[in-house]
Write a structure and sequence with these properties.
alpha+beta; five-stranded antiparallel sheet; Thiol Ester Dehydrase, Chain A
Length: 143
């Protein structure tokens, strides 16, 4: 999902569903994102170490999850949008071989001081359940 259009308040209303985004979770993705975010914890790049610590495989770190949530929101809203607030909870780990499917819904669109903000609730589910769920406030592009 890549947006080439900047959404404005005229394009968005409460109840709108964001497009689904599927992210295949691969070992390469998990390792490269952990290294890119300077997270060198072994559970994000060393399967044997992860298994020693009780998990079946390496798993995605929180910084990567946050990055993919941000990508999901700004791909939907467009390159002129800005994430103003974000809150989320982590659940089931993202292990290689699974797919995280992001979905979201516009809960409210507000105008404040001439700027428009979409309040979004989102989820990222994998085969074990919710990996991430939360809410965000996204500033939309001007009219």
């Amino acid at each position: 999902m890549t947006a080439f259009k900047n959404l404005t308040a005229a394009d968005v209303k409460a109840g709108d569903a964001l497009p689904e985004f599927k992210l295949p979770i691969t070992a390469r993705l998990v390792v490269s994102c952990a290294i890119a975010s300077q997270d060198f914890q072994d559970v994000h790049h060393d399967k044997a170490a992860a298994e020693e610590k009780g998990t079946p495989d390496i798993f995605m770190n929180i910084l990567s999850t946050n990055g993919f949530v941000g990508r999901y929101l700004t791909d939907w809203a467009g390159p002129a949008s800005r994430i103003k607030k974000i809150k989320f909870n982590l659940g089931a780990p993202n292990y290689p071989g699974d797919t995280m499917t992001m979905t979201g819904e516009v809960k409210e669109v507000k105008e404040e001081n001439g700027q428009h903000f979409a309040h979004i609730e989102f989820k990222g589910k994998n085969g074990m359940g919710n990996h991430v769920s939360g809410s965000a406030v996204v500033q939309l592009a001007g009219a």
